[in-house]
Amino acid sequence: MKILNLYASIGGNRKLWGNDHEITAIENNPEIAKIYQDFFPNDKMIVTDAHQYLLEHFKEYDFIWSSPPCPSHSSIRFLMVGKKQHGAIYPDIKLYEEILFLKYYFKGKWVVENVKPYYDPLIKPSVIIDRHLFWCNFYIKKCDSKKEKNIRYVNASDSRYGFNLKEVKINHRKDQIIRNLVNPEIGLHILNRALEITEADKYGQSKLFES
C-alpha cells in the first residue's frame, strides 16, 4: 500500500508496520523529522505542514493515518490549566476539518487519531482504544494491547514503546514527544484491519468485517 503518515512525530503508530509498504511521513519540526528518519530510513520524510499536504496530495495514497496535534483537546491539559484559566487556548478545529475532508473526499482507507478530549467530541469517534479516539471509514475492533499506565509521568528514557531519547539532542521536551506517541501495537492492529478490509473489498466481502 501507499501510506501517508501525517503528523508523524518519531513514528509511534508506524513502528511495527515493517518495510513492505511505500510510506510517506509528514512532520513540520525538522529535529523531530530527523529522529523519525533515523528510526525509519526507508520511509520518505517530508518536512512541511501536514494539514496543507493532505489537501494537496490525498489522491496519491491508499491509506492515510492522521494524528493532528492534541494539546488543545487534551483533558489532562484542561485539568492542568484549572480554575485559574492561565494558558487557556482555543481547540484546534483542524482535527474535525480533516475528519470531514477524508470522509467525503478520500476514496481509500483512512483513520484520524486524537486523545480523549475535555468536551464531548463534535463528531462521534468510530472506536475508543485505551486513551485514544479514532475516526475512520472501516470497522476497527478493540485490540488486546496492554492499557497504558502513568502516561503523564514518562521521561526521555521511557522505553515503553521501544523509543529511548535520553541521548538524543533536540530542542524539544522529550517526555512530551514520547507521551504523545500512539502505542505501536495499536498502530499495527489498525493497519492490519485496513489491509484486511482492502483485500476483502476486491472480492465484495467487506461486510464480513463490519462487526
Protein topology:
Blueprint: E1 2-6, E2 22-26, H1 30-39, E3 44-46, H2 50-57, E4 63-66, H3 75-81, H4 94-105, E5 109-115, E6 127-129, E7 132-136, H5 174-179, H6 184-202
Describe the structure.
The protein has helices spanning 30-39, 50-57, 75-81, 94-105, 174-179, 184-202; strands at residues 2-6, 22-26, 44-46, 63-66, 109-115, 127-129, 132-136. The chain has 211 residues and is α/β, with parallel strands linked by helices. The chain has one domain: Rossmann fold. It has a 7-stranded mixed β-sheet with strand order 3-2-1-4-5-7-6, with helices on both faces. Strand 2 (22-26), helix 1 (30-39) and strand 3 (44-46) form a beta-alpha-beta unit. The model has no long low-confidence stretch (mean pLDDT 87).
